[in-house]
Batch of 4 targets.
Target 1
Amino acid sequence: MTDEIYSKKISAGSRRSYYMDLKRRERGDVYIVFTESFTNAQGKEERNRIQINKEDFKKISDGYTEVLAYVHDRLGVDFH
């Protein structure tokens, strides 16, 4: 059994949302589930999920920061 500790919804237009759910396993470990939810071309809801375990939080955070810096600095995309 898992407990949901915290959830954050990010709306990205009328057909797409992202969720970040922090959960705790019975033995106490925490993990994050990232979910993309969208309506496909046929009008059906689809979901894609990825689970990140606590030992990888820092690695994922560092990689995300690096990718955003590349997009901003090298590609000139201003998203701030």
Target 2
Amino acid sequence: VSLAPQDAAPYIQMGNLKLAEKQPKDAEKAYQQALERSPSSSDALSGLMNTFLMEKQPDKAVAAANAQIAKVPTSGAFYDLLGTALFLNKKDLKGAEAALDQAVKLDKNNTDAVVRLGQVQVARGSAADAIATYQRALQDNPRQVTLDILLGELYDGQHDFDKAKAAYQKALELDSNNPLASNNLAYLLLENGGDVDEAVSLAQTARRGAPDAPDVADTLGWALYRKGYYQQSIDLFQEALRLTAKGNHPDNPNLHYHLGLADQKAG
């Protein structure tokens, strides 16, 4: 700060340090100083909002976002921060959707805003709108694997097997080792009469990429169960239960059901 008193960057880092030290008042002051020097800094605004949220003051976080948007109305990143706070911290779906929609209009390459917008639309009960949002975004960002995976999950939720499969396959064409796309496609094949050998291969790819994910261990176990390798599937289901407990994940009834079926088959 002493070397470059008009540069926002050192004030942002000072705010980050004070926030890490749990000194919110000092953090707030530093972020405000950063915004005075660089009104368009999304890092400074994000830090300021996080400070308010840490103090359980979401209204102040929203007010800070709106104040900065008034100064820099062309910042898609600011609308993204506003929409995220309204969605996650205020449960204001209408306001969040409006803010995130504006973020995407201002910056079509803001994948974070696109993903969040789809999540808001799903939360208000319109998977169709979320699908349309992701499809539009893919026209501008055709190599965004995340969007293809999210589309696959939405189609899967609508029981549209063919479209879900196509979305996961497109994701894997762009990233052949993507563990989430591999896992989701493997499970989709297993649950819809697909090729079990292909499902095993995909599940093994997912397991290599995400060895600590309980749902991935479950998928591979389920694939091996379908192949008749019951003891190997039991080992994987038990590993999935250990990973669930270790990671404090929500307990999964399907996992217990799969383990029970494998135990039954193993005698």
Target 3
Amino acid sequence: MSSHLNQISFGTDGFRGIVARDFTYDAVRKIAQGLADYIAYKHMRVAEKPSVFIGFDRRFMSDRFAAAAADVLTANGVACSVSDAPLPTPAVSFLTVSKFGLGVVITASHNKYFYNGLKIKQNGRSAPPSVTAELENYISKAVPMRGSSVPAVRRSFRKNYADYLGSKVNIGQVLSKLPGPVVVDFMHGSGAEMEGEAFNSKNIVKIRSSSDPLFGGISPEPVEKNLSELMETVRKRKALMGIALDGDADRFALVSDKGVYMTPCQIAPMLLDYLLKRGMPKGKVVQSVSMGYLTRRTAKASGLQFEETPVGFKYIAEKMISEDVAFGAEESGGYAWKGNIPERDGILTALMFMEMAVKTGKTVSGIYGEIEARFGKSAFIRRDVALEKTIPNKHSFAVKLKKKLPKTVLGRKVLDTNTIDGLKVILEDDCWLLMRPSGTEPLLRTYAETESQENTKKLLEFASKLMEQK
């Protein structure tokens, strides 16, 4: 992301910026014009150009930014429909498969309330890097047109998305057979727009479902530090589980029946194992490099190929489209599997975990206990470390840091390294450490997983000391 209008760029998933400084009407109109020019060039020999659907989240002025984008697109003769209410991001992705050629979502996902952003959707997922790179070129030269005589159509597609969810999980049956309460934390995000269709049950305890552009003063990011109310409510209500969705409902978090936050490295193997038992067709298992070893071990036990990708669900989605991938997972809480659109979907994942409770008759801690007994313990921690300045070249950083690595770390041999996104160090017993610069801000993201919290913290301390040697 850049604040200069001629240098608008798409990061891990879209363009984001602080409202009124980076994310402005001018920026949105320029992006919309670049998209219109891209469509015109790509389809210059085709009579019918792809239509565009524009969705938006609950953030401050998201609906107005959506209208500004629609104004530019329609002025260019692009057929355009705009959601009549906030909508989860996965719903827009789904609509690019079922009804529209392209999608635009006005959202800053899990970022703080003073941010907003824009995502481009195509073929059921975020536009791949090859497309966004081309778009950036058109955007840099764009001169926005305005004043179309044909306004964009405002329509509700909530039922279309609800029907899609219902085709994957028997929602009515699952909700009616829940053996106890489930607490759902919407974090004031757009996932709550679907509470009547996906979470309509006396067994569902809903918290933070109201629309609040300030998100209660925290980031709508479903990570442990932001979920104290969810964990407390689970314990107080003696619930089966707690579920959290981020600001645009494409990410999912889980709290066990004991009120304990479950890491993505624990969630992914539970979900993969259940889906395989449920009859999901087999294929490769793909996860981001910042994820852990339990998913790998679960895949291996079923004879499935396994592969890691750079951080960003767009890389997993691309694999799901181009290869025979059965399951994909990322450390920020995104999960997808064969038979669905190649997109992370927090609501669908939530429904699947509720189905898991109904079908197995087991608690989350019971289900995870079985995973742990079969594949080992996982203590995963992520820690962000402030840097003096941004590190723009991740690969160069990784190569330099790799040269400083000792042959053993905490008494364990270094067995391998991975530099596809930062430096990942694999030790004996599958323990690992990842050091990955942000690329857009002065932060070093460090991740580690071992069999105990104590050893994981020691690995992260080792990472800090290694950085001090630079």
Target 4
Amino acid sequence: MKNLTLKSLAKLRPFSPRERFLVLEISRGGAGGFAFSVTKDRSIRIRKRWGKFPREQFLERFAKLMRKRKTIIVADPAIAFTMFLPMRLDRDRGFLKEPIGLLELENLIAKEIGRVFAACRREASAALGIEELDTILVGSRAGAFRVDGYKVLDPTGFEGKRIDGILELTLTTRELFEGWNEFFSARENFFFTEQARAELAVLEKFEGSAANLLMIRPGWALAFILESAPRGTVIYRSGIPWGTDRLPEAIGAALGTDRAVAERLYELYRAGDVSDAVRRSIERIL
């Protein structure tokens, strides 16, 4: 993700001179990250990288550092879940003669979130493999708006009876939320996203609204499909019964060897240094 993000950030939005960013990549195994700045000519300068982010040391100077830079937490899909839902907001009759106001829109969206939240939390907790009470909503936004069927960038200021759009909800684990609570509490200059969502957003800028992303980890794999829907762009997520640790197991079972030998055979296969019989066996497995 780092390379894709760094090459693309400058093209995604106009930066003010010398903006500073801190990106933290959090997974079940810990947190790494990097700090970078955007110069006057919009080039990106990497200032520091961390294989293991020094959280305690950072928190000692937290308030000062947060004022100086925008912080982005990018969570692994194993601990974060993004949902896209069609949204229909019917205005109260008492407001129909008035243009849509910001407060009215926020209230309508908040009611919609309240209406769908229980079902969303159940789905997210099942995908993340945790209890519902340990599944926390950490982000919500709405887009792809229509007012009485007409596309609008922002509904406020328009007159109409009904607002349609796409509601995007991001949920994560209580462990992540409480472990990084200082960042979530800061709010200002703080952003949270799921890794697959962020990577597909970058791909969409360059490839359009039709992209696939496959993420493979030890023990699990996830497929993400970005595509256009009647009311906007959505992302579908599906688990795949595979993982980076499964290939040596499959080779070992097929050839009657232990894991160490299977891993060595696969290395030799990739180097083209195995017999035709072994090559055919591994290719059947693949």
